[in-house]
Amino acid sequence: MSGWFERHVSEGWEVERQDRLARGEAGPSNQHYFCHTLLPERVFDAAGLQFVESLMGKRGHELLAEVWNRGCTKKAKARHFKRVWTPLTDRWKAIVVTPPPPLGPGEVHLIGIWRDYANSMVASEKEGSSTGDASGAVRYFCLERGHVQGTTFVGEWLGLGNRRDLGRGSEPSPEAMIQFMADLHGINADFSDRPGAEVVLKVDGQTIEPGADLKELDLQGANLSAANLEGVNLEGANLEGANLYKANLKGANLSGASLPNVDFRGANLTGADLSQANLTGADLREADLKGANLQRATANERTVWPEGFDPVAAGVTFESLSASANDVDVELQQADGRPASSAPEPLPAEPGFSMAEKLGKLADLRDRGMLTEEEFQEQKMKLLE
User: Fold this and answer.
1) Partners of 320 in the beta sheet?
2) Most exposed: 119, 150, 201, 230, by fewest CB within 10 Å?
3) What is the pLDDT of residues 282-338, one digit of tens each?
4) What are phi and psi of 277, to 5 degrees?
């Protein structure tokens, strides 16, 4: 099980429940409503085929954010939605959408959309295509969080409000989700029925493959477990919270990349350039760092290193773990018209702000990049204690 998966299945459901109560939200969560109702409505309506095609375009992540924002009580930014897609054969394409992380049972790790072009002409030639027409050309799956920690299960929508349970699922990674859908259609696990074919992942129109130029690409939260990224250029890219468990990053350029809370466990980073990269909270256990350049990379007390590795000798700079929390406190004091003290008190003890205001301030700092997602969750838990 990857570190990314372990972290997200262990996030406190009670904390999220309290957070939603503080925001005045009732009923099913935004995440559940989006994945189980709003998005299936768009996929299976009369213009569903065109919508699915648009998801594979450059504005796909923006379209997902628009669907969320029109129907959910808490707004989401386009960067909260990641997509990968791959053409498996001339007939089939597979799309995997990563929604905001699930915090409760039944919420969704990954959405899988299967596009069948053999049925497209039939569906598109009929005026006012029905839900049944759309489901002939598109299949919609959700890999959902189970009630038992660490478990997943899969559901398929056969149309609006018509779901069937497909049983236990796998660990949430785009590759595993694509393979699950491929297996349902009789495509071999190694895709050997299409000579020379491989699973080609695309993010925002960029192909994820060895040697690719992904400079400054936003891959926040991307699931690239075991991906072959040898020699890729990720200079200045944003991979905050990404899953790179056992990924091959040999010789990759990660200089200046944003890598907070990335799961690098077991990754091959031999000869990789990590100079000036932000590695705060990253997990590098069992990663191979032979020959890697870590000069002026930043880390903190939560960064986990391979056994026997000396980050200081490698040129890594350490920052204070409490700095971000102090920044939050200082901003709250200044917003209240009070001078910031040289020794800020703990955030929960600050008077003059309601719980909702404090949570909103924390969320704003996170969205502005002053807090990582993990630091945001940590401070939120302290507020709700």
Assistant:
1) none
2) 150
3) 999 999 999 999 999 999 988 999 999 999 999 999 875 444 445 545 444 554 454
4) -80, 150
Cβ atoms < 10 Å from Cβ of 351: 7
Phi-psi region of 58 (alpha: psi -120 to 50; beta: other; left: phi over 0): alpha
Judged on CB neighbours under 10 Å (0-12, 13-18, 19+), 28 is middle
- Using the structure block, give the residue that is written with the tokens 């009369």: 46
Joined tokens for residue 107: 């919420």
CATH topology of domain 209-319: Pectate Lyase C-like (2.160.20)
Cα(81)–Cα(270) distance, rounded to whole angstroms? 30
With a CB cutoff of 8 Å and minimum separation 6, the contacts of 263 are 2, 3, 4, 242, 243, 244, 245, 282, 283
Which H or E run includes 95?
Answer: strand 92-98
**CB neighbour class for 273 (10 Å; exposed up to 12, middle 13-18, buried from 19):** buried
Amino acid present at 321: L
For every residue of 310-365, DSSP letters joined together read -TTTTTPEE--TTHHHHHHHHHHHHHTT-PPPSSPPPGGG-SS--HHHHHHHHHHH
This prediction has a pTM of 0.49
d(CA 240, CA 255) in angstroms, rounded, equals 14
- Among the residues of the chain, which ranges form H helices? 3-9, 13-22, 30-33, 39-44, 48-55, 60-71, 120-125, 131-137, 174-184, 323-335, 355-367, 373-384
- Rounded Cα distance between 207 and 36, Å, is 29
CB atoms closer than 10 angstroms to residue 339: 8
Q: What is the mean pLDDT of residues 104-118?
A: 89
User: pLDDT category, 201, cuts 50, 70, 90?
Assistant: low
